[in-house]
Specification:
Low-confidence stretches: none
Number of helices: 2
Distance between the termini: 159 Å
Radius of gyration: 53 Å
Helix content: over 70%
Mean pLDDT: 82
Number of strands: 0
Largest sheet: none
Strand content: under 5%
Shape: rod-shaped
């Protein structure tokens, strides 16, 4: 019996308390929730940083394209002005050609017709 009493006396020493096990499970569950929450926050921060970087890149590209567009518009205006200038010069050149033609016609062709009329000789074709 003495063996039994020793065994009975030793049982309280070998019994595993249930409360700490429940506390460990609860602590483990809390640690898991904390890790999951922290992981989600880290992922959210990474996504926000990536979105910000993408937004900044898009803004940089938009500004670059805006500058290029303004430069292209300025060049177009310059070329249109240049084209207008050439158009005006071409029209003035045509006016001068018409004036020169009129002078030639008045001075030489009509004068030649007057000579034929005065001399009565038919005009020769060259």
């Amino acid at each position: 019996m003495r063996a039994q009493s020793n065994a009975a006396n030793s049982e309280p020493d070998t019994v595993v308390p249930f409360a700490p096990a429940l506390e460990n499970a609860a602590a483990s569950s809390t640690d898991q929730l904390d890790r999951a929450g922290q992981t989600i926050l880290n992922m959210l921060h990474n996504a926000a940083n990536l979105a910000e970087a993408n937004s900044q890149h898009a803004l940089d590209v938009a500004q670059k394209l805006s500058h290029q567009l303004r430069a292209a518009e300025a060049r177009i205006a310059e070329l249109e002005s240049e084209g207008q200038s050439y158009q005006e010069r071409a029209e003035r050149g045509e006016q001068w050609l018409h004036r020169v033609y009129s002078e030639i016609e008045d001075r030489f062709l009509k004068q030649g017709n007057r000579r034929e009329a005065v001399s009565g000789a038919p005009r020769r074709n060259a």
